[in-house]
Amino acid sequence: MNTNTDIGAIAKAVVRRNTEEVQGGGNFALFDELFADDFVDHTPQPAGTPDKAGARLLYRALRQAFPDFHAVIHWQSVEGDRVTTFKTYHGTHEGALFGIAPTGRKVQFDTVDVMRVQDGRITEHWGVAHLYSLLQQLNALPAMFPAA
User: Fold this and answer.
1) 88-97 b/e (C-beta count within 10 Å ≥ 16 → b)
2) Which residues contact 65 (CB under 8 A, 6 or more apart)?
3) Nearest-5° Cα angle at 24, 6 to 97
4) Which residues contact 16 (CB under 8 A, 6 or more apart)?
């Protein structure tokens, strides 16, 4: 039995459950189980906090803005206790987000993130979301950056 492989498979499953059941399904009881109390987000969104409460707030804001919010995971890779995931988020903009009034538009944007999983819980996050693409789709870019 290869312990590193088992740990990697468990870590990937934890991250996948977060993506599918918490972000995509709105299961915030599971959020509390999956995220460590001392969770640190190294790349919080604007006006967010780099902790568990900030991540919960962001997830709730996304679910309110996009009630059908969900991700398609393209691939995951594990190195040690870190899981890297490339995914595309999808949703219909039916609630305010970042001060942008609902547009009713269907959107999608890519994200790459890394989550550290220790003892079955997410302890750290680093991520890059293609928010420029999201703003383009919502027609919310300043005049100096017109939508294509």
Assistant:
1) ebbbbbebeb
2) 91, 93, 94, 95, 96, 97, 102
3) 130
4) 73, 76
CATH topology for 3-137 is: Nuclear Transport Factor 2; Chain: A, (3.10.450)
In one-letter notation, the amino acid at residue 97 is L
d(CA 121, CA 10): 10
Which of helix, strand or coil describes residue 145? coil
Mean pLDDT (the chain, rounded): 93
In the chain, what are the domain boundaries? Answer: 3-137
Whole-angstrom Cα distance, residue 47 to residue 35?
20
d(CA 98, CA 129): 14
Task: State both tokens at 120.
Answer: 């079955």
Residue 88 has pLDDT above 80, yes or no: yes
For residues 148 and 134, what is the distance between their CA atoms, to the nearest angstrom? 12
In this predicted structure, the answer to whether residue 3 has a pLDDT above a threshold of 80 is no
Rounded Cα–Cα distance for residues 16 and 23 (Å): 10
Average pLDDT of the residues in 21-35: 97
